[in-house]
Amino acid sequence: MLKKKNLVSLMSSFSIISTDNLFEDIRLNPETYHSEKLDILSKLNNLGKKKLIDFFEIKKDTYKPKYTSKKIKLIELENISKFNIHSFQNKEESLIKSTKYIAKLDDVVISRLRPYLNQVGIVDINGDILTTTELYILRKKEGLKQEFSKEYLYAFLSSNYLQTVFKWSQEGTEHPRFPSFILDNLLIPIFTKLDDLIVKKYKEFQNTLNDINFQYEKILNLLYLELGLIDYQSTEILHSTVKNNQLDQSLRIDTKFYNPKFNELLTRSLKNSLYSKKISDIRKINNRGTQPIYTKDGEIEVIVSSNILEKFLDNNLEKTTLNHWHKNNKSQINKYDILMYTTGANIGRTNIFLKDSKSLASNHVNIIRLKNENPIYVSFVLNSIIGRSQVQKYNSGTGQEEIYPHDIDEFIIPFIDKKKQEFISNEFFNITIKKNQSDLLLKKIRDSIDLAINKNEDEAINFLKKSN
Predict the structure, then answer these.
(1) Pairing between strand 350-352 and 359-361?
(2) Which secondary-structure segment (H or E) carries 359?
């Protein structure tokens, strides 16, 4: 028997659990039996009598990489933003150092690590693809009549209700994870008509995303064509010689900094450019943000490094207060500010901020505000191989790579014909609008599950139909 009592005067609550109702891991910490989680599980129990695991199984097929030069498709946690797999890596097998899971087309994946990061997605890549072992891989059971789609399962796992269950199920402090038995025991309510609509809407989302990626590659190829990089292949040189009088003014003596392949790429792009300038010559501001104070119901959006994706900014942002925004002038983001990922695995990713709203940058995000030149074009160049190679040259650190504002000041931007700059900028602006609309559609798909659970299927269908 389960009893809950609210202590209104203390603004807190507690749950009383019978020993018969303890979860499989018999954990006795209060978070595991938080009233929010118990309420949701009770709702699911009333609505659904079928277990998720009766139709989808958790796959743990492993692959131990070999020392070969073969290219391997790979999904790591950094390739999954909130509620979407936004990219995958094509990595030389010898550079993959740990055992991986094997995923396949149409698998639904969810991260067990730090569930509050909401890393859920559907694999849409043909053939085997390796993933981090921090993912649970859910695959349709063969030979069974399927009562719900992979898209429906994705929306269910991404819903606010289920994300709350995962949040209160996490174990550990430094690297909190939720155990697999949570998925094993989940009862799933099946709304058949809503499922059909979710499949249709998810296909719309996927088609829009494919069009966005096609348009992005089109303007990237235009940039590379103008700068003579369309068929560029770097030269791998094992050693090089640098004289004392050729040392950089920073007096860096690490071999990576003087690798000729970085200068080779930049030299070719500068040769084909109309003109070029250093970041220090065109910027008003070049500094990192500050560590924010996060507030669930805050009115100001916070951009952290994980929000800077391969091509665009993630729209699922943390929040802080207006008071904290006023106290941190240095971290305030303006429209057309360029934001760079400065620390860790995805160092160098660069996106532009195109909103009119007040926002703050976290301490691992670098803000570049220009005084002249086209900011969308400059951001696009920085996020291309031209900017990324300069990040590889200038970054420092052993355990965790860093790129600092004084390094970014040294970056050189090659500029092409003004009309072609404007074309790239306008196209990027337009596809960003499309990307924001597709993100909104994906959110409505997730929210429709919450509405069906909380209200009824018809209300959820009407809500999702209005997303046209």
Answers:
(1) unpaired
(2) strand 359-361
